[in-house]
Amino acid sequence: MRFTRRRVLTILGAFAGAPLLGGDGRRQELLPVLYEWNGTALGSPARLMLCHPNPAAAERIVARCAAEIERLERIFALYREDSEVARLNREGRIEAPSHDLLLVLSECQRLSALTSGAFDVTVQPLWNLYASHFFGRRPPTPDGPPADVVATALALVNWCGIDISARQVMLARPGMSLTFNGIAQGYVTDRMIGILREATFDRILADLRPWAQRALRDRPTSGWPPLARRPCRPAAT
To answer: What does the alpha-carbon distance between residue 18 and residue 33 come to, in Å, rounded to a whole number?
Structure first.
């Protein structure tokens, strides 16, 4: 049995100036069309739902978002052998790291310092140990892995052991490995919101269940329920 950390990412957006609420029949005709895309982001289900008066324009925006998700997966996805983090974990170093990797790693180091190591992206060896113990092929013992095995994994967990520069990222010890599961999903969400805002979507709801929600609207509003109820007309099929 393969154990995964499941998350669901949903982003809803409404084009600036488009009415969200339907009143009489005449007003309903002015509502933008709902365009929906379903895929994955970092191995978890992802959905984009956009209200836009021009379906072709909505499709282009969704394509930009999907391409950005694919690009970021090539950096942060553990399950992709060609991703930057997978190569870093496998080889212990990576040359010419991407701007996104350096940006997120720098933020991770800042958070680790602020929390005295409570947040630590080098926790992956410990995660792998417990995942293999409780969800591996052999029946697990309820008290967890042996203490000496845990100690060996813990010796590989140390956020101070990441050497970061514009030229390379290097891990201090063989066997160290990183996971961005505590931060990359939020980074992907922020990138999607940035793309939608550039496309003049001013009402955006990002739902990363069950951990967080983020809602943006530039103009004063009574709240988000109208958008959450999907008041747009479904696109014709």
So the answer is: 10
Q: What is the pLDDT of residue 2?
A: 41
pLDDT tens by residue, 204-232: 887 766 555 666 664 434 444 444 444 44
Q: Answer whether 213's CB lies under 8 Å from 20's CB.
A: no
Helix-strand-coil split of the chain, %, nearest 5? 40, 20, 40
pTM attached to this predicted model: 0.79
Provide CATH code, domain 84-179. Answer: 1.10.3980.10
Which strands, in side-by-side order, build the sheet including 168-171?
93-95, 168-171, 162-164
Q: How long, in residues, is the chain?
A: 237
| Close Cβ partners of 188 (under 8 Å, ≥ 6 residues apart) | 9, 41, 42, 68, 69, 72, 76
Structure tokens at 9: 């990412």
Would you list the domain boundaries of the chain?
Answer: 8-77+185-234, 84-179
DSSP-derived 3-state class of residue 146: coil
